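Hi R.,

Here's the chain you asked about this morning:
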Amino acid sequence: MNIQEFHFLLEKYDSGEIRNEELQRLDHLITTDPVIKKEFENRRLVEFGVKSYALRKELEEVMACEDNKQKRYNHWLWTFGLLIVLVLIAIVFWPTRKTSDQLYETYYELYPNFLVTRNAETNSLMDGYVAYNQGRFRDAVQLIERSPQYTEDHDLAATFFLGQAYMATGNFENSLESFITISEGTYFYWDSQWYAALIYLKTDPEKARLILENIVEQESDYNKKEARKILRHLD
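And here is the predicted structure, written out as tokens:
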């Protein structure tokens, strides 16, 4: 009888509908009846176990959520770091496209004149070469132009260095005129073609491309590497 009453009162307790006198009766049954007391303790252990299990599952879900957040953060951090590395590699190694003026400034070098010797006779052409080597390019132009070797003999070296002197003064039109008069198969031909291509970079890039392609295809190695580099910027 007592066990049935205990169950009845316990159900009312769980539902929150138990009255004060019924609560006192439930407490009396638990404290005075060893069987009821044992069942009540077992019930509390079961409830505690259920609550503990539910709490553990809740904690596991929270930890799993935090772990996923950390993984997503690590993935984002790794992706961002990789992107930074790729950008730096691109900045360092990716070839930047240069303008025609930049290409000219990069590859233009004054052609050295070794034709002046200590014992060379003094004449207008030699004086022009001396002025050229001293960087007096306007004087070199005047001296070379009035030399018999240029005006009468059409000397190739005189023609070539006249073009060089004009080029150094920025007179590209007269410089180009000198270079294109030098015939194929002569000593200064490919030198003249190279400098003509540099001038055309400023005035007519398509003509520069054609000359540079010819330099790449010719048999000798003269400025082939430099011509290829310029062509990559013209593509």
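One quick note: The chain has a mean pLDDT of 81.

Cheers,
M.
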